[in-house]
Amino acid sequence: MKKICQLALAGVLFFSTAVAQQTHDWKQATAAGYTYQYVSNDPMQTRIYTLKNGLTVMLSPNKKEPRIAVRIAVRAGSNTDPKEHTGLAHYLEHLLFKGTDKFGSLNWEKEKPLLDKIDALYEQYNSTTDEAKRKEIYKEIDRVSGEASTFAIANEYDKMMTAMGAQGTNAHTWVEETVYEEDIPSNATDRFLAVQAERFRNPILRIFHTELEAVYEEKNRTMDNDGWKMQEAMHTYLFPTHNYGQQTTIGTIEHLKNPSLTAIREYYYKYYVPNNMAVIMAGDFDPDVMVRKIEQAFSYMQPKPVEEYNPAPEAPIAAPVVKEIFGPSAENMRIVYRSGKEGTREALLLSLTSSILSNGKAGLLDLNLNKSQKVLGAGAGYRQYKDYGMFFLYASPKQGQSLEQAKDLLMEQLNILKSGSFDESLIAAIVANYKLGELQALESNNNRVEALMNSFIKNKGTGWKNEVAVLDEMSKVSKAELVAFANKFFGDNNYLVLYKRKGEDKSIVKVDKPPITPVETNAGKQSPFVQQINAMPLAPIAPKWIDFSKDLQKGKIGKAELLYVPNKENALFKLYFHFDMGSWNNKKLPIALQYLQFLGTDKYSSEEISKKFYQLAANFSANAGNEESTIQLNGLQENFSEALSLLEHLIRNCKADEAALEGLKNRLQKARTNNKLNKGAIMNGLMNHAMYGASNPFNHVLTDAELNALTATELVNIIHGLPAFEHKVLYYGPLSVAALSTEVLKSHPMPSAWTAVPVKQQFNRTEQTQNEVLFATYDMVQAEMMWVRNLGTYNPDTETLTNLFNSYFGGGMGSLVFQTIRESKALAYSTYAYVDAPDKKADRFAFMGYVGSQADKLPDAVGAMNELINVLPERKQNLDAARESLLKDLETGRIDKEGIIFEYLSAQKKGLNEDIRKKQYQQLKTMPFSALEVFHKQNLSNKKYAYTIVASEQQVKPADLEKYGKVKVLTLEELFGY
Q1: Could you report the per-residue pLDDT of 304-319, keeping only the tens digit for each?
Q2: Are 637 and 294 in contact (CB under 8 A)?
Q3: What CATH topology corresponds to 772-976?
Q4: Half-sphere exposure of 417 (CA within 13 A, CB side)
């Protein structure tokens, strides 16, 4: 399950800063015997078909690479859950991966009576209130489920998708939708459609109680996630009547404990009908051929009337609603307004308003709060559903600032908006920048299908014309209309305020661990249907490797090395100044580059510089990593010269600003405080400690005293001196090499000699000579654990081997780790393991394993992972599927544009002179299981590990961890270095 934010992807493909209007009208056409609708001047060239049985088909051809992104969407989500069975749509989403009577079963005739018995037991369980009797019934459910599992084959769906080369197999449920997601090779459509048609024909709700346990784990994870709690609260209090707020997607604990397979099945037959579904594709296909194939696959589906969710209208918010949410993470707050239906003028104006307030560069919040450092961070957003929308502003307070003060600052910006105190040219700049981003987004099949999916969910695609035309319509909005709208929409009382405060959440009740006997997964076995699918022929797709001598041009611009790839597709450019130095050379460099965004020059203030970049539809960033730093500029080639001149002016002429530095120090100190409240950051610190020891890349930062001692002058001097260090010029764009050289040297003069790079701090990986447990406490329901072990130094042949090992052992739903720990033993919602390849030849490989589970399951989860680490099962079909998946990824993968440059740089760091994928492709074809077995035995089996654990000391006692190794409880100061 994941949250879907509303994104608009529409407008004109080719444009200049001054945008010419185009007409967007519904049209109808017929081709190859199929009638479809389309919108004129749609850059995605979308065809929308309605088949005879009512199934919607939305197709957007894109020949960039031989792959197809797919969404199979159902217009049903938590809104349509039965009141007594919330979370049901989400259950069903999980169960659509379990197979049918044709796949997922070794013997359907023997399995079915047992599944019928489980159905009846769950109905009995749900109607029983006596706890002792419930335990007896559940024990019988567990017993019969174990017997039924002897006939079930877990993850046959995922194995079929893996074998055909699918990527990103997933699904999500949200308030109005359940969507099944795939990305397949373009030659696999026949296999894919055969599988999908069967998948939705007669789904069988098998291996249910262990999958339900995974949903329990998912529920526990949401209770550990303060951001998710804020999102739920935003819906709950903004929609006191509508199911947006009254039925959570994952369901209540009470309903999770009392599922009904009968109700799930009834829900499926009610909503999974063709007139309520869509097949949406973007990628490399002929739409005339594809629509025929889709109809042939899904013609068996029969339509039936679908009752739309038709709630009573929400009453207006008459007075501010103020609520508090508690949890262990950093404080933040939101102001939320409820808006109306999709497709209205209001929706258009709110989308524009969100960017007037917050566009990342020149919005009111960007300049007046973020650029001025009045808060740690602030922004605005807009999310549109079918019946209502939500407009929200958010802020995180800086050091010494209250949430109420942050709220007042947001309100001040709304008042500025309502007073019209902004330049009308901002509207045109927003439209130009949207179209720039849109042009970039059109290259992605996933962006295309997500936009089409959102349109189908909201209105079955009937609003696609509005989506295509939205930016042209936005460009017609006058400042006067926008200001009048803002004064009407943002009233004095019609909003919700949410304060996320640090503190104990006393409302949390974790879902208890039920007694579950591990079920049989029949790994390595295969149903006749899967054999039939895998035998379907695939037309060959020839892989394409990069030839660094042909696909990449090398040269010089002054003293700097140039790496160049021409853009022959559009008028966009990307320019990078790439330095082989970073924070390991100078801990102050990352802070200096952060400081740059708050500085002005003798000619322009910082705010004026941000506005100028935004008006040019250009973006720049300056970032320092551990060993590399990059200054990047991108945008429209027609504005290249002016944008580069402005960037160079800023870097070479920025002025020290003491007030800006004090603001930055305040925000950095607050960010450091917040990091110590972030369980992900804490785990990152533990892992670095495990890999490198007490002094490591994670805590290689300025101490608090060093941070406080920084001066504006020294930071500005670092910025001014940066162009004098040796760097490369990287360019992808339409300019010729000669023209580029002229343009760059005009604004970016080279020094007569490079400045010597400061000596780099070295970090060497440690040897795990004994088992140890690194523990950090955190107030959470779950426990999270990583296995860490450093391995041998880089070797390209080993990288090929570890790629296959990762796919077979711990990556994806078909891997050994997932099948064992989640599918069979129901010990975790999320679990994986992989060998991490280094990015340079002098560094070492490392093994990482992960389990996030209820604290009381941790001992069992550790045992399950350790068993796999010590004994590698041989499953030929799994290995063949993993191999085929990697081969198809290599065949269909296309590295182009600036990706060619970065692939070359990556190869150089590894000591390679050619595209490593070419050799990997040949090695994978013949790599036997014995190679994995030897690698596993030499590097993982019965070896020493560092166990890094983040958990509550109330749930996991450090003393109980001593059986895994010597326990070391680390303080946050030790982990973070401040």
Answers
A1: 999 989 999 999 999 9
A2: no
A3: Cytochrome Bc1 Complex; Chain A, domain 1 (3.30.830)
A4: 29
What confidence score (pLDDT) does residue 3 get? 35
Length of the chain: 978
Question: What is the DSSP code string of 437-492?
Answer: HHHHHTT-HHHHHHHHHHHHHHHTTTTHHHHHHHHHHHHT--HHHHHHHHHHHS-S
Give the span between the Cα atoms of 233 and 333, in whole angstroms: 12
Amino acid at 532: Q
Per the DSSP assignment, residues forming a β-bridge with 557 are: 560
Mean pLDDT of 357-368: 96
382 close to 390: Cβ distance less than 8 angstroms: yes
Beta strands in 186-276 (DSSP E): none
pLDDT computed for residue 706 by the predictor: 97
Mean pLDDT of 364-384: 97
Question: Of 835, 821, 855, 831, which Cα lies nearest the Cα of 788?
Answer: 835
Measured CA to CA, the distance from residue 745 to residue 557 in angstroms comes to: 7
- Greater confidence (224 vs 945) lies with 945
pLDDT-based confidence at residue 506 (cuts at 50, 70, 90): confident
The residues facing 336 across adjacent strands are 392, 496
Average pLDDT over residues 36-58: 97
Three-class SS state of 815: coil
Give the dihedral sign, CA 676/678/679/684.
Answer: negative
Element (DSSP H or E) covering residue 428: helix 425-441
Q: Which residues pair with 502 in a beta bridge?
A: 327
If you classify domain 321-502 with CATH, what class do you get?
alpha beta
Instruction: End-to-end CA distance of the chain: give it in Å, rounded.
Output: 36
- Give the max Cα distance, the chain: 86
Domain boundaries, the chain: 36-310, 321-502, 553-747, 772-976
Residue 356 to residue 443: CA distance in whole angstroms: 26
Given this model, what pLDDT does residue 10 score?
Answer: 30
Q: State pLDDT tens for residues 61-86.
A: 999 999 999 999 999 999 999 999 99
Same fold, 36-310 and 772-976: yes
The string of DSSP codes covering 561-621 is EEEEEE--SSSEEEEEEEES--TTT-TTHHHHHHHHTT---SS--HHHHHHHHHHTTEEEE
Instruction: Give the per-residue pLDDT at 45.
Output: 96
What is the chain's mean pLDDT, rounded? 94
- The b/e string for 761-772 (b: 16+ C-beta within 10 A; e otherwise) is eebebbebeeeb
Q: Which helix (H) or strand (E) holds 727?
A: strand 727-733
For CA atoms 284, 286, 291, 293, the dihedral sign is negative
Residue 80 DSSP one-character state: G
Q: Output the DSSP codes for 110-164.
A: HHHHHHHHHHHHHHHHHH---HHHHHHHHHHHHHHHHHHHTTB-TTHHHHHHHHT
Q: Which CATH entry fits the domain spanning 36-310: 3.50.50.60, 3.20.20.140, 1.10.1370.40, 3.30.830.10?
A: 3.30.830.10
Q: Are 833 and 940 in contact (CB under 8 A)?
A: no
Tell me the pLDDT tens digit for each residue of 423-435: 999 999 999 898 8
CATH number for the domain whose boundaries are 553-747: 3.30.830.10
For residue 19, the model assigns a pLDDT of 44
> What pLDDT is recorded for position 4?
31
